[in-house]
Design brief:
By secondary structure, the protein is of the alpha/beta class. It contains 13 helices and 8 strands. It folds into 2 domains: 237 residues, TIM Barrel (Alpha-Beta Barrel), CATH 3.20.20.70; 92 residues, Chorismate Mutase Domain, subunit A, CATH 1.20.59.10. It has an 8-stranded parallel beta barrel with strand order 1-2-3-4-5-6-7-8, surrounded by 5 helices. The longest helix is centred in the C-terminal third of the chain and has 42 residues. It is elongated and about 80 Å long. It binds phosphoenolpyruvate and manganese (II) ion (MN). Manganese (II) ion (MN) binds next to loops.
């Protein structure tokens, strides 16, 4: 029987401070890896990242140095005392990374989309006692993300975390990968005790957005932040636009504020309770108003049916939307909110009128 004490979870500070992961997108050369690690050694980070096998979208881009660079990560550990992590995408990567003493493994977004890859990684992890972080799949499919976590759990891995790196989009967007915070929050609800890390670099795609996205993640009670750091970002062999210099990283890190999940402070809890009570009352009023609006729509549906008039009156709907957005703006409400709410209500009203027309 194995009587070894159970190893401490990889992140003992969960709930009291952020977990920091930083390092270059790719391990390019031994000098670049060591230079970055030395610059980050006094930055108070928990884990040094560097991609050894790089899943590139197009062939011909730098695909990492593979096993050649694993001794560099071992040197980082020996010379700086930092723990190290890298991405694994198949069984061979897992065996090599474990052989060279990589402390934490992560599964990349492209692998998470493919259950065969995840299962291969899970099988290779059987019996290993290594923390594993699972990135979201590139497509906004929360079940794929959950499935990947479950496959790794079933392999007996107990120290698990997830990384939110955003979701691919079609066309031009402010973000390289849209955050879709709501999806990530749903996953967090499914796995409430798991460390939840935001990879702001791959969400943003450009340095300028990193602080805001990282602070938003901390405001949403994420446990940690992963950021790419390179001594000379513009010369990086992968992801140059989103990497920070070590100095810029330290500046961003020092400005980020961690929020506690909760507190015992009675005054705070009392005020929070009162405010939440008011919010619940307003939510009840909103529901009652929506119900009343739908009843009116049912009446209109019946009236249109009797007079043989089409459900959708394009002009009227256009006006409702336009004036709603304008009124909302005057009240300090975003166009996104107003158009989202009005469109959802309008769609429901059309569905109900359609049922009435069909005589259901
Ligand atoms: C990375 O972290 O360098 C990486 C390739 O990320 P992702 O899998 O999120 O694209
Ligand atoms: Mn990268």
């Amino acid at each position: 029987m194995n009587t070894d004490p159970k190893p401490a979870p990889f992140f003992t500070g969960q709930g009291t401070r952020p977990y920091w992961i930083a390092g270059p997108c790719s391990a390019e050369t031994e000098e670049q890896v060591m230079e970055t690690a030395r610059d980050l050694a006094d930055a108070g980070i928990d884990l040094f990242r560097a991609g050894v096998w790089k899943p590139r979208t197009r062939p011909g881009d730098f695909e990492g140095n593979g096993t050649t660079s694993l001794p560099w990560l071992r040197r980082v550990k020996e010379e700086t005392g930092l723990k190290v992590c890298t991405e694994v995408a198949n069984a061979h990567h897992v065996h090599e990374a474990l052989k060279y003493g990589v402390d934490v493994l992560w599964i990349g977004a492209r692998s998470t989309t493919n259950p065969f890859s995840v299962q291969e990684i899970a099988d290779a992890l059987q019996g290993a006692d290594v923390p594993v972080l699972v990135k979201n799949p590139i497509n906004p499919d929360i079940k794929l993300w959950m499935g990947a976590v479950e496959r790794i759990q079933r392999a007996g891995i107990t120290q698990l975390g997830v990384i939110h790196r955003g979701f691919s989009t079609f066309g031009k967007d402010k973000y390289r990968n849209q955050p879709r915070w709501q999806l990530a929050i749903e996953l967090k609800q499914a796995f409430p005790d798991m460390a939840f890390i935001c990879d702001s670099s791959h969400i943003c795609g450009s340095r300028e957005l990193l602080y805001d996205v990282s602070q938003k993640a901390l405001d949403l009670n994420y446990d940690g932040i992963m950021l790419e750091v390179h001594p000379r970002p513009d010369e990086a062999w992968s992801d140059p636009a989103q990497q920070l210099t070590p100095a810029a990283y330290k500046d961003v890190k020092s400005r980020l504020r961690f929020r506690l999940a909760t507190t015992d402070d009675a005054d705070f809890l009392g005020s929070l309770e009162a405010l939440r009570g008011q919010i619940d009352e307003i939510d009840d009023e909103i529901l009652a108003l929506i119900e009343a609006r739908m009843k009116l729509c049912d009446g209109i549906g019946a009236y249109k049916k009797r007079n043989n008039i089409a459900i959708l009156q394009t002009n009227r709907w256009g006006e409702i939307l336009k004036s709603g957005i304008a009124k909302g703006k005057r009240k300090g409400l975003s166009e996104e909110l107003i158009s989202g709410v009005l469109k959802a209500v309008h769609q429901e009203s059309i569905n109900r009128q359609h049922r009435i027309m069909k005589g259901e």
